[in-house]
Amino acid sequence: MSRDAVLHHLVEAIAEVGMSGLSVRTVAARAGVAIGTVQHHFPTKAAMILAAMDAISVDAVQAYADASEDADAEGRLFATVRLLVPSGPESRVSRVWLAFAACAPTDPAVGARYEQMWARTERGLAERFADAAPGASRSTVDDAAAEMLALLDGLAVTVLAEPQRMPGERARAIATRRCGELLAHLRA
């Protein structure tokens, strides 16, 4: 079985059972291959986690590019905000991202990669705000992006962990409203 096929099952395992349930045996069983096949492609659990992070990052970059297709700067900003809030607890990318977030404080390699990916996400959000409010100062734009990303992160966790209290639609409405408020502030 190819590395990409094993990686697909690895990501699906993380989405389903989280990091605590992740093992070579779990991935092998899901993929229907021998444990040695998984170990050939991913010799350590850390290698599995980092490969899954990279795979999810590719998915996220593609979704971000798709959100960039809107011709209007404000539309691109709001599309990006909606993208960062899962529609529901079944969101594979968000479930895997949450598993990484939980692992980041205790695993230095995962923590470094997580920080790098999240910094890139914040820079992208700042670019969206700057495009939509070209007269705003860089520091104000950066603060708006940091605040928005913190809100989006919290909403995403709540959608995944408490979908009855915070359905995706409600979270997206809250995020959209706050994004509009921040944008109005930047344009003032």
TrEMBL record:
GO molecular function, one term: DNA-binding transcription factor activity
DNA-binding region per Swiss-Prot/TrEMBL record: 23-42
UniProt entry keywords in alphabetical sequence: DNA-binding, Repressor, Transcription, Transcription regulation
InterPro entries: BetI_C (IPR039538), Homeodomain-like_sf (IPR009057), HTH-type_TetR-like_transc_reg (IPR050109), HTH_TetR (IPR001647), Tet_transcr_reg_TetR-rel_C_sf (IPR036271)
Alphabetical list of SUPFAM superfamilies matching this protein: Homeodomain-like (SSF46689), Tetracyclin repressor-like, C-terminal domain (SSF48498)
Keyword Nucleotide-binding tagged: no
Protein name: HTH-type transcriptional regulator BetI
Signal peptide annotation: none
PANTHER family per the UniProt record, alphabetical: HTH-TYPE TRANSCRIPTIONAL REGULATOR BETI, HTH-TYPE TRANSCRIPTIONAL REGULATOR RUTR
Entry superkingdom: Bacteria
Pfam families: TetR_C_6 (PF13977), TetR_N (PF00440)
HTH tetR-type domain boundaries: 1-60
